[in-house]
Amino acid sequence: MGLGDKISNKAQEVTGKAKEALGDATNNEKLQAEGVADQAAAKTKQAGENVKDTAKDAFDK
Predict the structure, then answer these.
(1) Locate the CsbD-like domain: which residues (predicted)?
(2) Is the pTM of this model over 0.90?
(3) Contact 42, 20 (CB under 8 A)
């Protein structure tokens, strides 16, 4: 996984956490749901990139 991808995924996760917290604080269910969805998408991307890294490491040996 490239450093840019790691940063992008982490930024999306942090943004999601902020949206979720703001949604909780303001009783805005839509914003809260968007935050949860952003976090899930970021974690899914991170998992996919980890699989790519593992496969690359296995084939490089």
Answers:
(1) 5-57
(2) no
(3) no
* Residue 8, CA atoms < 13 Å, CB-side half-sphere: 10
CA atoms within 13 A on the CB side of 54: 6
56 or 31: whose pLDDT is higher? 31
Sign of the CA dihedral with 3 first, then 39, 21, and 33 last: positive
Q: In which region does residue 50 sit, left (phi positive, over 0), alpha (psi from -120 to 50) or beta (all else)?
A: alpha
Taking only the tens place, the pLDDT of each residue in 5-48 is 889 999 999 999 999 999 999 999 999 999 999 999 999 999 98
